[in-house]
Amino acid sequence: MRGSSFGYLVKEGIKNIYANRLMSFASIGTLVACMLLIGSSLLLSMNVNVVVGHFETQNEIVAYLYDDVTQEQVFQIDQQIAMIDNIYDTIYLDKDAVLQEQQAMLGDLGPLLDSLEGEENPLPATYRMKVTDLAQLSSTVMRVEAIDGIEMVHSPDQVAEVFVSLKNAISTGGMFIVAILIVVSLVIIGNTIKVTVFNRRKEINIMKYVGATDGFIRLPFFVEGFLLGLLSALISFGLLWLGYNYIMEIIAENPSIWIEQAYANMIQFKDIAYRMLSWFAGGGIGIGVFGSMFFVNKYLKV
Amino acid sequence: MIEFINVSKVYKTGTHALNNFSIRIDRGEFVFIVGPSGAGKSTFIKLLMREEKPTSGEIYVNGQDLIKLKRRKVPYFRRTLGVVFQDFRLIPNMNVYNNVAFALRVTNVSGREIRNRVPYVLGLVGLANKSKSMPEHLSGGEQQRVALARALVANPSLIIADEPTGNIDPDLSFEIVDLLSEINKCGTTVVMVTHEHTLVNEFNHRVVTIDEGQVVSDDRLDGGYYIE
Questions:
Q1: B37-61 average pLDDT score
Q2: Are the C-beta atoms of residues B163 and B193 closer than 8 Å to each other?
Q3: B193: confidence class by pLDDT, cuts 50, 70, 90
Q4: pTM: predicted TM-score of the whole model, two decimal places
Q5: Number of domains chain B is built from
Q6: Residue B113 shares a structural domain with residue B16
Q7: Which of residues 168-227 of B touch A (CB under 8 A)?
Q8: Are residues A64 and A146 in the same domain?
Q9: B51: chain A residues, CB-CB within 8 Å
Q10: pLDDT < 70 positions in chain A
Q11: Would B168 be classed as within a structural domain?
Q12: Count of CB atoms within 10 A of residue A299's CB?
């Protein structure tokens, strides 16, 4: 293909967008609407996940050691805990540290516990462990209990259960909704493109009769699909950005502590902007290009 | 130039469109193909343009074996043909000039040649002063002349006209066939399908009658214009 022809075909593609502006508008409108719906459901479920995840990590397993464990045994316990994958953060407090902590908590009354220092200290040395996956809490607890030298383990089983089911519901529900939206979008967009191509079947037909190669006929449609997809991606990205930041501002102004804590953990749009944009652009361009190629091919069989 | 040897075409619906159809049309001939509806004229045209493949038989057009011609080579074969349809098939949102230039643009012709060829061909069909008009503002006869210009612009060795006068006034029909005859005098082969007998009788060209998928008469010798 000579350069001038390529340029001509690309120009044709761009011109076609304007010449068929009503259809172009419909395609962009549909694509934007679909991407906005998918994008906002994605953002919502991502955020809920992050926030729930944050509260999830606040849960600790607490293990108390026997009074008579030696320094060497503590070292071994350390190693065994380190081998448990689900535990990502471990704090060890020896007997003195636990006492100090208790004293600190009592504030002014702290000195009351002074007499318990040293040999008299009844408080057990303690491990506080944070788990990555609350769903595996009970098995993790069992492994910790099995370690030599550990007397007792406390864990928030019931809270864990609630969080696990909540998180599961959100991610399956979110995935489900996004999947439905994607299917619906594909059907609507496919239809729009089909109508666009159908309106121009005469043109395609004539091109075939005068001896245009299939590649030649496809190129303007390719350019058109590409540009419509890209344009839709940019518009929906922009709208989503504005909308998201607007909602974030409303949340930020809310005085509730619980919401404040959640807000601190919520995803900032700029952190996922690039990813979002590339998803949108990829999806929009992909649908635009493959949609038009698919339907153009139907009319190429002359 | 064109040779059909024992060609049969059976459509998936079971219709036997052509039965053992054979014809030979030489370079520079002007042939009218006539016959009642359903005789197989349209199928003949479709096979000629390689829009369809025959069920059996051999077809040679412009030196190409159409049975063996690969799908991706079809566009290059079509560039050696010029086609005119009953319904003109102009692109409504392009003016006359662009409708003609379009045929060259989509076949990789340079911009300079397009600017040379298009006005020349429009002059040939007598539409030099209408190059900026839109198809809807032209009469049927004029539209068909634009279509003819489009068929001619790539300088094909064969012009296929499928009922080119079917949608235009009888007076103007004569004009179109006259134009085709002029083109034919310059050496271009013309195959024209029609069922307007009066028109056929006004010109001294070879007339092939098709019925039920076969050639029933071929008055090749009556034709006044024939080069062996």
A1: 93
A2: yes
A3: very high
A4: 0.68
A5: 2
A6: no
A7: none
A8: yes
A9: 302
A10: 1-4, 302
A11: yes
A12: 18
The arithmetic mean of pLDDT across residues B187-205, rounded, is 91
A268 close to B (CB below 8 A) = no
Do A291 and A225 touch, CB atoms closer than 8 A? yes
Q: Are B10 and B208 in contact (CB under 8 A)?
A: no
When comparing pLDDT for B165 and A161, which is higher?
A: B165
Nearest CA in chain B to A19: B93
The parent domain of residue A89 ranges over 60-155
Nearest residue, CB atoms, A207 vs list B83, B106, B154 = B106
Radius of gyration of chain A from Cα atoms? 31
Write out the residue range of the structural domain in which residue B149 sits.
91-155
- What pLDDT sits at residue A1? 56
Q: Is residue B125 part of a domain?
A: yes
Check B75 against A211: CB less than 8 A apart.
Answer: yes
Q: Does one domain contain both A200 and A128?
A: no
Among A155, A190, A219, residue at a domain's last position: A155
What is the tally of structural domains in chain A? 2
Q: What is the DSSP letter of A122?
A: -
Please check whether residue A213 touches B, CB under 8 A.
yes
Banded model confidence at residue B153, pLDDT cuts 50, 70, 90: very high
Report which residue type is found at A152: M
Looking at per-residue pLDDT, the higher value among B180 and A90 belongs to B180
Q: What is the pLDDT of residue B226?
A: 37
Instruction: Decide if B182 is inside a domain.
Output: yes
Query: How many degrees, rounded to 5, is the angle at CA A295 between CA B102 and CA B91?
Result: 25
More confident residue, B191 or B107: B191
Residue B16, classed as helix, strand or coil, is: strand
Which chain B residues have a beta carbon less than 8 Å from that of A4?
110-111
